[in-house]
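Late entry, written up from scratch paper. The run itself happened at the end of the previous shift, but nothing got recorded in the book at the time, so transcribing now.
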Amino acid sequence: QKKVLKEIRNDMGTNAQMNRLLQGDVGSGKTIVALMAMLIALDNGFQSCLMAPTEILATQHFNGLTELAKDLNINIKLLTGSTKTAERKIIHEELENGSLDIIIGTHALLEDKVQFQNLGLAIIDEQHRFGVEQRSKLWQKNEIPPHILVMTATPIPRTLAMSLYGDLDISVID
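Output as recorded:
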């Protein structure tokens, strides 16, 4: 985890967009690494999002990250297909005015109404469950493309990862 976090911190410290695949078994610590990366973005004045392929997984991430960050005074919200209209309106306003630090959600994050003030980091869990067009829509939500961190528990050979995702760096949590 420390080695991977150092790689991510180095990537995020350059002017180039990070494009990193984080691979690790279930329970290996990908979520804590993701939170630390989001804290780096937040510390630098940027918002973060984490997109998961299912409402169940998005809710698990939301609950886990909320618990881990409970003492940090960070505004974290969940946006899924079943988020009520009134809550959606609040989320949209907070994203646009910058008071929402971290948004976790499903495909609902791709809706046109979801606009960020300053998205600096987009994390996608189980990226292979999303289409190329869907993924690219997420990083078009900011004038400057955000850093990208994709996470998977599915072992992907480097050559296949390069053909699927293009030019990216790969980190593995053992």
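Strands lie at 19-24, 47-51, 76-79, 102-105, 119-125, 147-152, 169-173.
(Scratch paper discarded after transcription.)
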